[in-house]
Amino acid sequence: MINCLETHKVGTRKVQPVATPRLREERICWAHRLQDCRSAVSIGVLLLTFATSLAGSAQSQPDPATASPELIGKAKEAEQKQDFLTAARLYQDYLKAHPENPAILQRLGLVDYLSNRFEAAIPPLAKALQLDPSLWGSALYLGASYYHISRFTEAIDALKRSLALKPNVPETQFWMGCSLLADNQPEPAIAHLVQVSDDATWGVQAEDLLVKAYRKAAEDSYHRIATVTPDSYRVHLVKAELLAWKGINNEAVWEARQALQRNPSLEGAHRIIGEIYWQEKGFDLAAREFQAELQINPFDGESNLRVGEFWLAKGDPGKAASYLNVALDQRAGSPGEVHHFLGEVQLAQHNYAQAAANLEHAIQENPTDPANHQLLAQVYRASGQLDLAAKEEQLSHSARAPSSREQAP
Fold first, then answer.
1. I need a labelling partner for 254 at 20 to 30 A (CA). Which of 155, 216, 394, 398 fits?
2. What are phi and psi of 9, to 5 degrees?
3. Dihedral sign (CA 205, 210, 211, 212)
4. Residue 81, Cβ neighbours under 10 Å: how many?
5. What SS3 class is residue 23?
6. Over its length of 409 residues, how does the chain's per-residue pLDDT go in tens digits?
7. What does residue 245 show for φ and ψ, rounded to 5 degrees?
8. Residues 6+ apart with CB under 8 A from 243
């Protein structure tokens, strides 16, 4: 990945380097970036809270605590301490006397899941669901457990059942997307991952997986089309995308040019070329390609984002704003990216209140990017709010993810 850390001037102030990701798959930069969906998220406390609410919900079952308050109380206390193995042992002891209690079977499955004992989690979750078919949480974590031991077909079946019982639960959508992608079904996976791409908990991981799903779908599409019309503009365009993803840039540009020769009004080809030039720091060439894309499709989000960023770096924040606002409407870029650059525009125009509002929005969407805190600190310094500036500087140092935006000169 390119790390272009050139400082550029905005008005009379220097703006520190801010990270501008060039390709979708390079936008999410974690210190320990996901390699696959198995390490997608650590959900300990979140799931523990969710497990408590599930087990305590109205399930047509009596409160198990009335039967054995001391045992259940100790198990819940172990849960709160995240001592899931002890909690599991206590629930197992309870189930020796009450083997048909679906609420406690569900809790046992959940604490096994939280301790990464996925195979152990499956029997109690499956039995709980058998005893009480309304337990959508059991179906959810049964599917997630199946996923973690690579039983993807069974994972999909369980997650479908959970979605049928309670649609639009972000966790369920996420694990369904993971399972479908692992089962070599990228297009259905995309439909589920898109639904959680803006979710505060699952969005970053979903974005990362969407890249893989789109790439796999494109590869499948290319092979289908190439067998029917091997020299069509569609084949050249898809091949250009695949080559660009693999970093084979010269061939990707050639394929995109071939596609444009066959269809000059084709959407997407100029953008592919522009992204490659941007990656290679050919910012003027890239801007021309993005502008050409906008002649074909004025609402292309990525092209508007890059052209706006280009004019911002060239010292024309007013011109940049018009493109960035379209990019914002089109939800272009990675989480918080467009708001970050709009904040930089407002800083250059000395509109500090609006700059702070945009940067606070960027932080809300992507709290792990220190560049957002760094720029907000500059806004506060410029407006004389030194205490707030110092706080943001401190937050920028404690942010988890390193900044990796590339800045045009």
1. 216
2. -90, 140
3. positive
4. 10
5. coil
6. 233 323 232 232 222 323 333 333 333 333 233 333 433 333 333 343 344 444 443 334 444 444 477 788 888 888 888 898 998 899 899 999 889 999 999 999 999 999 999 999 999 999 999 999 999 999 999 999 999 999 999 999 999 999 999 998 999 999 999 999 999 999 999 999 999 988 888 888 998 899 889 888 878 877 777 777 778 888 899 889 889 988 999 999 999 999 999 999 999 999 999 999 999 999 999 999 999 999 999 999 999 999 999 999 999 999 999 999 999 999 999 889 999 999 999 999 999 999 999 999 999 998 889 999 999 999 999 999 999 999 999 988 886 544 444 444 4
7. -60, -35
8. 249, 251, 252, 255
Tokens at residue 37, please?
């969906």
At 26, list the tokens: 């390079």
Helix H segments across 132-169? Answer: 136-148, 152-165
Helix (H) or strand (E) holding 273: helix 269-279
Tokens of 218: 């494109």
How far, in Å, CA of 237 to CA of 242, rounded?
A: 9
Phi-psi map region of 369: left, alpha, beta (phi>0 left; psi -120 to 50 alpha): beta
Encode pLDDT of 250-279 as tens digits: 999 999 999 999 999 999 999 999 999 999
d(CA 21, CA 341) in angstroms, rounded, equals: 12
Contact 283, 310 (CB under 8 A): yes
Looking up tokens 């100790």 gives: 74
Written as one letter, the residue type at 97 is A
**Cα 357 versus chain centre, distance:** 23
Per-residue pLDDT tens digits for 112-142 = 999 999 999 999 999 999 999 999 999 999 9
The long-range contacts involving 127-131, CB below 8 angstroms and separated by at least 24 positions, are 127/102, 128/102, 128/103, 129/102, 129/161, 131/100, 131/102, 131/105
113: amino acid identity, one letter? Y
**Which helix (H) or strand (E) element contains residue 353?**
helix 352-365
> Can you read off the two tokens belonging to residue 221?
């599409």
- Residue carrying the six token digits 């390609």: 289
Quick one: residue 21, left, alpha or beta (phi over 0 = left, psi -120 to 50 = alpha)? beta
